[in-house]
Q: What sequence folds into this?
């Protein structure tokens, strides 16, 4: 089925377009907007972005595959990102990650069977002073303990 | 010398420090108002006098960079602000965006005026949702007041500021990659020349500045460039002002502080960072993972009296004031000024493995030496960690890292190779022992405290 934005997001798109001297510059913001609505970037989304911004589909696809935050497959409703770069690793990121895997019963890059949660690793999220940390959807959780991880993940699935 | 300052951070502890009301109550937007009535040359002269060395990592003088912008012709000019903050160990720009976003907007107005631009794009990494929201709110508040738009402060010189985001790619912090990403392309770095000042965003003259750099434009105008510069112990080396310092890793009190330039690593680690957690100091990465690690037993060697480092001859590198040139002379870099500390209870082989995995993951893949080299380095380290490597493979690592140096489009290549060579040279014995004993010589860990017992405070 062809993809299109909700009327509210159409308005946001107009605002986005007004910020730049050309349409191509709206590629990444528009992809974010579509993914927010659709949960992932499907072929239909790519077509929609290409048509709307008058760009070749190949260009849009090239952008999508370059950036790690665009998903080319359906994903869980929630995203858990565990930072594993050095400052977090020095403060227990591995344990945090293991606890997430155990608790969710999935490996990195997978989604729980109920479609609720996808688990990812992240590279340094600019929160090293409050390591270890993870991001759940749009929120940062810092100075994590294993107990807190349990509570946060339980909350996601309840 | 430990000299804490409250210039960039003067609003950090105020209630609702991010609002226009608080900002203006504490002197905000006076300098933008003034700048709108100053000439470009006068603004650039203040920035030059301030000796502000770019806070993004490379340490280029901001005023000089602004002066590279061509005179205003018919081509639009752009200001691009780098808030990608992706360099591992770095968490300083985020504090400005969250706590004092109006200082960024005001800095952008001054910056636009100083380089002849009418628009500034603040490139914020997508994950920093609170930062983006605070910046947008500040922009909207400023626009409503008429500080942005067609006639900022009543002057017929339009200025607009926008937030743009990436979508998760460390390489987009590299300035030309950032410009490609801003234009809606894959974030692949461009060959230089042409430099952004000639051919930048949308093919137009562009200045790229780090977010802390642009926020500092406000106090620079307020105090006067020279006064700002003189705050620093390294004023005589043209490394001026105050800046944000951070420390994380194995310290008791990680965080960020604003201090005059001239703070030493020892002060950062022990006085501000509360000392090494869980052991003695093994090493410190001074300014983000791309800067080679320093060992506490390294000494400055500058016997010649004409050497700018002579003053510190024979002293520990931990006691040298942290500056762009001083740390370069210690064989590393100041980078982002956010240090990562490793205790001797952690294993340097595992630390290098962690970082090299990062670089392999983040290479954009355009250049063969970087793409393949970072992959080989990671695979050899995988084998070392698994206890499967031969001692000769340590030399292979040297060779591969050496071949990346100078053979790539962007500085990511050096940013991978230099820290790799740093670990290999400075911890040669630990690496050899690790290989020979198949890891039994190592502490076998990076994390030194159980995750639940070390942050009761
Ligand atoms: C791989 C790579 C990543 C970088 N990441 C950042 C970054 O996240 N933030 C930043 O301000 N500068 C970053 N830089 C430096 C920029 O290319 C550029 O030098 C800087 O934004 C210029 O601003 P400044 O002169 O005010 O420091 C990076 C450079 C490289 C090579
Ligand atoms: S050095 Fe690496 S990151 Fe930079 S352009 Fe080449 S492949 Fe890309
Ligand atoms: S290393 Fe995890 S936030 Fe920086």
A:
């Amino acid at each position: 089925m062809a993809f299109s934005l909700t009327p509210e997001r159409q308005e946001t798109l107009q605002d986005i377009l007004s910020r730049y001297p050309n349409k191509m510059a709206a590629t990444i913001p528009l992809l974010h907007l579509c993914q927010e609505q659709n949960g992932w970037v499907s072929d239909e989304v790519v077509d929609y972005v290409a048509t709307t911004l008058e760009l070749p589909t190949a260009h849009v696809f090239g952008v999508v595959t370059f950036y790690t935050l665009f998903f080319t497959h359906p994903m869980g409703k929630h995203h858990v990102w565990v930072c594993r770069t050095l400052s977090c690793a020095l403060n227990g990121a591995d344990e945090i990650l293991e606890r997430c895997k155990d608790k969710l019963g999935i490996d990195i890059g997978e989604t729980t069977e109920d479609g609720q949660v996808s688990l990812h690793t992240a590279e340094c999220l600019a929160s090293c002073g409050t390591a270890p940390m993870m991001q759940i959807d749009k929120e940062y959780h810092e100075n994590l303990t294993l107990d807190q991880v349990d509570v946060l993940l339980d909350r996601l699935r309840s | 010398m430990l000299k804490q300052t409250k210039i960039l951070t003067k609003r950090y502890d105020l209630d609702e420090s991010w609002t226009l009301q608080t900002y203006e109550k504490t002197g905000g937007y006076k300098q933008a108002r003034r700048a709108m009535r100053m000439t470009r040359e006068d603004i650039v002269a203040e920035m030059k006098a301030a000796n502000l060395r770019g806070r993004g990592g490379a340490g280029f003088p901001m005023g000089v960079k602004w002066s590279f912008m061509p005179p205003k012709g018919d081509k639009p000019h752009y200001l691009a602000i780098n808030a990608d903050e992706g360099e591992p160990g770095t968490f300083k720009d985020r504090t400005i965006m969250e706590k004092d976003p109006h200082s960024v907007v005001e800095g952008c107005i001054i910056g636009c005026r100083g380089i002849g631009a009418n628009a500034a794009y603040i490139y914020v990494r997508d994950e920093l949702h609170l930062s983006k929201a605070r910046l947008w709110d500040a922009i909207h508040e400023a626009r409503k007041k008429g500080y942005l738009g067609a006639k900022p402060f009543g002057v017929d010189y339009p200025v607009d500021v926008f937030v743009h985001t990436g979508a998760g790619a460390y390489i987009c912090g590299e300035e030309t990659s950032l410009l490609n990403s801003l234009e809606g392309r894959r974030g692949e770095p461009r060959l230089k020349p042409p430099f952004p000042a000639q051919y930048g965003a949308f093919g137009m003259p562009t200045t790229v500045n780090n977010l802390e750099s642009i926020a500092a434009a406000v106090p620079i105008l307020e105090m006067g460039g020279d006064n700002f510069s003189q705050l620093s112990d390294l004023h005589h080396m043209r490394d001026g002002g105050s800046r944000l310092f951070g420390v994380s890793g194995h310290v008791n009190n990680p965080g960020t502080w604003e201090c005059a330039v001239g703070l030493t690593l020892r002060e950062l680690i022990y006085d501000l960072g509360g000392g090494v957690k869980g052991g003695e100091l093994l090493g410190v990465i001074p300014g983000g993972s791309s800067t080679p690690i320093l060992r506490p037993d390294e000494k400055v060697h500058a016997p010649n009296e004409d050497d700018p480092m002579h003053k510190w001859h024979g002293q520990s590198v931990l006691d040298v004031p942290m500056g762009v040139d001083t740390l370069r002379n210690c064989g590393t870099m100041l980078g982002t000024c956010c240090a990562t500390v490793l205790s001797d209870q952690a294993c340097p082989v595992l630390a290098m493995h962690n970082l090299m995995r990062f670089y392999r993951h983040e290479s954009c893949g355009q250049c063969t030496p970087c793409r393949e080299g970072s992959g080989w380095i990671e695979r050899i380290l995988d084998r070392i960690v698994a206890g499967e490597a031969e001692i000769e493979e340590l030399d292979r690592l040297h060779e591969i890292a050496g071949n990346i140096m100078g053979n790539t489009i962007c500085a990511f290549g050096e940013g991978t190779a230099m820290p790799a060579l740093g670990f290999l040279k400075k911890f040669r014995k630990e690496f050899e022992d690790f290989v020979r004993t198949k890891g039994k010589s190592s502490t076998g860990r990076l994390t030194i405290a159980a995750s639940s017992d070390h942050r009761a405070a």
In short: The first helix of chain A runs from residue 7 to 17. The longest strand of chain A covers residues 78-83.
